[in-house]
Amino acid sequence: MSELKQSPHASPFSRDTSAWLRNLLGVGTLIVFCFFIWSSFDLMHKSRNTLYLSEQQAILTTEKMAHSIHDHLKELILAADELAENLAGMPLDQEAVEFTLKKSALNHAGYYALGVAFDLYQISPQLRLFAPFLRKNATTYQLDRLDQHYDYTGNAVYGDRNSNARNWYQHASTGRSGWLEPYYDLAYQQVTIKYVTPLRAHAQSEDLKKGVVFLDIGIEWFRHHIENHDVGDNGYAIIVNNNGQIIYHGLKGPKKIISELHQSISPSYLADFSTGSPGINELTGRSAWLHKFPIGETGWYVLTVMNTELSNKNLFYNQPDHPVIHKSDIHYWILTTVILLLMIYSWIALIKHQHSITHLLRHAFIFSLLLTLGIITIWINEYFAASPVQNNSLTLSNRAIVEQFQDDYTISALNESKHPPFYVPTGLFIQSIEFLNASNTAVSGYVWQRYPKSYEESIEPGVIFPEAIQTALTEAYTHEENNEIVKGWYFEVTLRETFDYRGYPFDRQFLWIRLWHKEFTKNIILVPDFKAFDSLNPSTLPGVEKDFVLSEWSLSRAYFDIRINKYNSNFGNTRFTSHDKMPELYFNIEISRNILNPFIAHLFPLAVVLLMLYGIVLTISKQETNLTITGFNVSAVIAACSALFFILLIMHVQLRDELAVNTIVYLEYFYLISYVTILMVTVNTVLFSYDPPLPILAFKDNFIPKLIYWPVLLLWIFLITAILFS
């Protein structure tokens, strides 16, 4: 027997081959290293640019929001100051005061109530208290008197619900003006925020009359003005006063805010908004910018939480696209990093002449370890990556986006001489979703629409689910709310949709419900009903049952969006002129697959099969000492490979039946690689059985196939993973 075969540390490579490989690998490593440096700098540049743009977006949005709210508050203060000025110097007569109040109130809008409260017996010796105010009721104003509801000069002003609150009348009668803390007002039967200013003897005088002018707004006032600003997907805003009391919270509805009215935000959390460093979005758990800006001299602050991630759509309108980081950039960097590490390690091994059997086994282990870490890293990045942006879609996550869309589409319709669009607020509440098969989905819940009572044109309420193959729509309720009519239906529909399973089991699916108005030929456009939801933030899952259960899936987001669709027909109605540009409302539910079940059902059995296959490879031997232990036999190996092949084939067919797709999904590549591996093991067994076998197989009793089994297998999986998810 030759020395090469006898030595346990002999190398399968000649010196000339090693030198040639070393030089070739050195050049290749240098090229990959240069590409790695370039990709790293590009990734860092995009990352810094993304952080910079997102931070600037957060700062500008916060400041813009604070200035906008302050401007609207100044308009309200102007109404109160104008009333105080008009009452200054005039005789305190009941009729004259009420006339002046009506005159001032009708010159301004946007408040809930405007009035004046006088001290004891200021109007008449027979009239102990007098506090008239005008309260907005739907589209009209109603004259009422505060003193007929409670004694605003005493401790009963707040009632039992707010016994420790500050007496607003006493605050203003001392000569101080300003906004007070929210409290429950017995006259309005709701929580109110009051602006007060003292009544003076003359407009330019410091002498005070015994009275206070007040103006009230509700919690909904802040919600309306905050939602006129776009804080991005899953961003939200908070308004607090100087005591840390929450006046508005983008993740909480009015009822929740009112129930927690006397709970202050923690000082440590409030301090995070002053650092200018990224924090944590409590809704998504992801990195976000926390910023704070004062609202004028009110003592209030706007706090914003906006994601550090930027999508293709950002809030910098009329600016060119900037290079921002995407999921594919990270995947390419991981691919380059793993390849570079493998090449550097190989080059060092060749330089140090680490060609012995022991060294080769160590090299195979390290190669396999690096490839496995690369695969797992890509899996983690894919699983936690931000949600993809739907093409030709406008996510309607706040009122600002909806109003901008309505303005743009109205102008477009008028320019094209179309019938003026009519916007119908529409809401959905999903109670159940069931996957009937890979394409059909059963959905049930409630849908409703809101119409003004005084609309001139006759419109028949109703909705159409254009993608439904079965629809059951039952009228559930009709009621009046302020100056509107709300009509709701219970629906059960079966929708046929196309899902993208290419990333299975790391896929995310978008269940969508497409909505048309019953009379869509009249250019009636459906928009989300903001009044019906505490928040339209996608991660709060608006319109979805709280205890919603969907087998094998986790709910990620729910949101409305508008998509522009085109049709080559007028549906038999010559008045339908919008078929070339039809905005349609979609309600989307984004779901993420629970990967535990696919891992147990498919990946774990695949791993076991590949381990068993490797065990078969280890038994291939012609040495007598090994034959007595393993009993190597070509027929037995082929039979074992055939059995493993049929096991995988049954699992593969079951997977195809479950998904019913016409493309190859990610998990299927594992089966395809396993088939090739089984075939190569079979070929290796047959060729090794020849006498003499091929030199590469004869080396150390079939050592090379045993050595490269895992590195080659994992290399294919790594490359497919990196390319497919990039």
Report on this structure.
By secondary structure, this protein is of the alpha+beta class. The protein is built from 16 helices and 22 strands. It has four domains: 88-222, 2-Layer Sandwich (Beta-Lactamase); 223-307, PAS domain (Beta-Lactamase, 2-Layer Sandwich); 393-594, Neurotransmitter-gated ion-channel ligand-binding domain (Acetylcholine Binding Protein, Chain: A); 597-724. Helix content is 40%, strand content 24%. Strands 1, 2, 3, 4, 5, 6 and 7 form a seven-stranded antiparallel sheet that branches. Helix 11 packs antiparallel against helix 13 (634-659). The two termini are 52 Å apart. Mean pLDDT is 83; it is low at 1-10, 155-166 and 312-320.
Label this structure with key terms.
alpha+beta; 24% strand; disordered N terminus; Beta-Lactamase; 22 strands; 4 domains; 726 residues; 5-stranded antiparallel β-sheet; Acetylcholine Binding Protein, Chain: A
List the helices and strands and how they pair.
Blueprint: H1 3-6, H2 15-87, H3 94-106, E1 113-118, E2 132-137, E3 140-145, H4 168-173, E4 178-179, E5 183-185, E6 190-200, E7 208-218, H5 219-226, E8 236-240, E9 246-249, H6 254-259, H7 267-272, E10 278-280, E11 287-294, E12 301-307, H8 327-351, H9 357-384, E13 393-395, H10 399-415, E14 422-435, E15 440-452, E16 463-464, E17 468-481, E18 484-496, E19 508-517, E20 524-528, E21 553-565, E22 582-593, H11 596-619, H12 624-630, H13 634-659, H14 666-689, H15 695-698, H16 703-724
Parallel strand pairs: 14-20
Antiparallel strand pairs: 1-2, 1-7, 2-3, 4-6, 5-6, 6-7, 8-9, 8-12, 10-11, 11-12, 13-21, 14-15, 15-18, 16-19, 17-18, 19-22, 21-22
